[in-house]
């Protein structure tokens, strides 16, 4: 068992990247606005997205290639589509996670500086750490980060439930109008944007290289399942906290990053007590910081690999170029566009949801193609779940697009 735990890594990095805005912001809002009424959305989206995230480490460990290599083999046009979709989403995603991190940092350090400066500062710190190669240090502490947040979240939920009990019903709701947009946004980043499967395939290869190829497909999938189940569990915890503490009250979450951060931490301390403030604040801040630095690192790595494949320039590394572009683009958004957290999160999550069917179909086609060894392909049950997942994601995307024309 110890050997398995030692080989954990990419799955926890997945969790570190996923447990961010989708959990701290969207899930808590879902509970605050609808009580337990959106549990159906939480369960279904995690169930139907599961195979497509799993295909990332499965393909990488079975073939020794990233999903991007696989996309290229299916057709160069698929890689071009990914390139343009990533350009369209990576700046909004980075902006959204950074402003939440900045809000938490402002609250924890009790320095109410303009959020634009906090956000630029967080971006600069992450950029500097990644340039000097210190990201490995964060990777080593990811287990502590995830365990701390998991324990504190479960404990807060148990205490909140003991106070409210069954007073809140489990009747499920399907919002209409503006509420439908929130459901789409909620599912867009739950548990994470679909293109994280690409990042996971790259992390899996790096982990296998670090272990001198001593990472089997079975061990890699175990690692993935640990990370994925953690994201689902914490998603439910945050929905429950929003439902038990804020649903039916006069309290409303602010769209301002620093104000929201204070409300979020108060959500915990109101149940755990003021003595737990430090632990909760650090856990939330560290989690969002890990999300921010992971996205700032992963997107440029994926874009660098994409350029290498598209233009057959494997001898050149474009990571420095793309991380600089992403960091500067994020800062320009803060300086010249309205950096209201709610709007940024909504834009990023809706874009992620709309593009989900593309990644789902592409991952499924690749994992069942001749480029994947037959013996390492998923089971029949996973294939059936994949087809249902594609129908689910496509159906909701069509419903959303039709709602825009009404």
In short:
78% of the residues lie in helices and 0% in strands. The protein is mainly α.
The low-pLDDT segments are none
Structural class: mainly alpha
Oligomer: single chain
Q: How would you state the average pLDDT, rounded?
A: 83
Order of helices and strands: HHHHHHHHHHHHHHHH
- What count of domains describes the coordinates? 1
- CATH-derived topology: Amino acid/polyamine transporter I
End-to-end separation in angstroms reads 55 Å
In CATH, what is the homologous superfamily? Amino acid/polyamine transporter I
What proportion strand? under 5%
Rg over CA atoms, rounded to whole Å, is 20 Å
Largest sheet: none
**Helix fraction bin:** over 70%
Question: How would you characterize the overall build of this protein?
Answer:
This protein has 16 helices and no strands. It has a single domain (2-404), classed as Amino acid/polyamine transporter I, CATH 1.20.1740. The chain has helices spanning 2-6, 10-18, 21-34, 39-63, 67-74, 76-108, 115-131, 135-164, 178-188, 196-210, 217-246, 257-272, 277-310, 319-336, 341-367, 380-404. Helix 6 crosses helix 7 (115-131) and helix 12 crosses helix 13. The longest helix is centred in the last third of the chain and has 34 residues, at 277-310. By secondary structure, it is mostly helical.
Which key features would you list for this structure?
single chain, 406 residues, mainly alpha, Amino acid/polyamine transporter I, 16 helices, globular
């Amino acid at each position: 068992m110890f050997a398995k735990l030692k080989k954990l890594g990419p799955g926890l990095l997945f969790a570190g990247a996923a447990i961010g805005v989708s959990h701290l912001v969207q899930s808590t809002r879902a509970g605050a606005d609808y009580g337990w009424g959106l549990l159906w959305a939480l369960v279904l989206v995690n169930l139907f997205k599961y195979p497509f995230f799993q295909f990332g480490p499965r393909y990488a460990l079975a073939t020794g290639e990233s999903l991007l290599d696989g996309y290229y083999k299916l057709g160069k046009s698929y890689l071009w589509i990914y390139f343009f979709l990533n350009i369209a989403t990576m700046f909004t995603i980075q902006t959204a996670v950074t402003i939440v991190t900045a809000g938490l940092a402002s609250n924890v350090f009790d320095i109410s500086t303009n959020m634009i400066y906090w956000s630029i500062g967080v971006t600069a710190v992450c950029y500097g750490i990644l340039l000097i190669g210190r990201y490995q240090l964060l990777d080593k502490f990811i287990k502590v980060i995830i365990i701390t947040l998991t324990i504190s979240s479960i404990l807060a939920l148990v205490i909140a439930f003991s106070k409210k009990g069954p007073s809140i019903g489990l009747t499920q709701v399907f919002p209409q109008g503006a509420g439908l947009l929130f459901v789409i946004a909620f599912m867009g980043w739950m548990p994470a944007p679909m293109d994280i499967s690409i990042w996971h395939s790259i992390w899996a290869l790096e982990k296998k290289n670090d272990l001198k190829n001593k990472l089997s497909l079975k061990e890699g999938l175990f690692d993935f399942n640990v990370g994925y189940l953690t994201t689902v569990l914490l998603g439910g915890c945050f929905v429950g906290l929003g439902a038990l503490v804020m649903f039916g009250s006069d309290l409303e979450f602010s769209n301002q990053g620093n104000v929201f951060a204070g409300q979020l931490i108060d959500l915990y301390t109101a149940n755990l007590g003021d003595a737990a403030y430090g632990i909760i604040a650090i856990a939330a801040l560290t989690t969002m910081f890990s999300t921010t630095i992971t996205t700032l690192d992963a997107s440029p790595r994926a874009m660098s690999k994409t350029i290498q494949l598209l233009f057959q320039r494997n001898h050149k590394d474009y990571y420095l170029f793309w991380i600089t572009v992403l960091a500067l683009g994020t800062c320009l958004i803060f300086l010249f566009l309205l950096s209201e957290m709610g709007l940024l999160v909504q834009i990023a999550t809706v874009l992620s949801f709309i593009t989900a069917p593309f990644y789902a179909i592409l991952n499924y086609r690749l994992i069942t193609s001749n480029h994947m060894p037959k013996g390492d392909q998923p089971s029949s049950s996973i294939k059936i779940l994949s087809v249902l997942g594609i129908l689910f994601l496509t159906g909701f995307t069509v419903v959303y697009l039709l709602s825009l024309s009404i």
